[in-house]
Amino acid sequence: MTTDPDIDELVYTLDDTLDWTDRDLGSRRTGTRQRAESARAAVDAAVRAMAQGDVAAARHLLDSWHG
Predict the structure, then answer these.
(1) Are 46 and 62 in contact (CB under 8 A)?
(2) What are the distances in angstroms from CA 35 to CA 14, 22, 56, 63?
(3) 46-54 — which CB contacts under 8 Å span 24+ positions?
(4) DSSP class of residue 67?
């Protein structure tokens, strides 16, 4: 963990989202797979924002995702 609580929370959210999307991407149900694919796209965008140093944008991307 870091000394920045915002980054710690963001990393926890990313990890949690990756856990359930890993499971749901293998689902036979189309709706479940599509929801996981949508969430994974939001995670990918958030990680790109974090790589550019924009934690606020990463947080916004995850908070605004609706499955």
Answers:
(1) yes
(2) 15, 12, 24, 15
(3) 46/10, 46/14, 47/14, 50/10
(4) -
Cα angle 55-20-13, degrees, rounded to a multiple of 5 = 20
pLDDT at residue 67 in the model: 63
- Please answer whether residues 46 and 6 qualify as being in contact, where contact means their C-beta atoms are separated by less than 8 angstroms: no
pTM of full prediction above 0.85:
no
pLDDT truncated to tens, each residue of the chain (67 aa)? 556 778 888 888 899 999 999 999 999 999 999 999 999 999 999 999 999 999 999 999 988 887 6
Q: How far apart are CA 32 and CA 24, in angstroms?
A: 6
Q: How far apart are CA 17 and CA 36, in angstroms?
A: 9
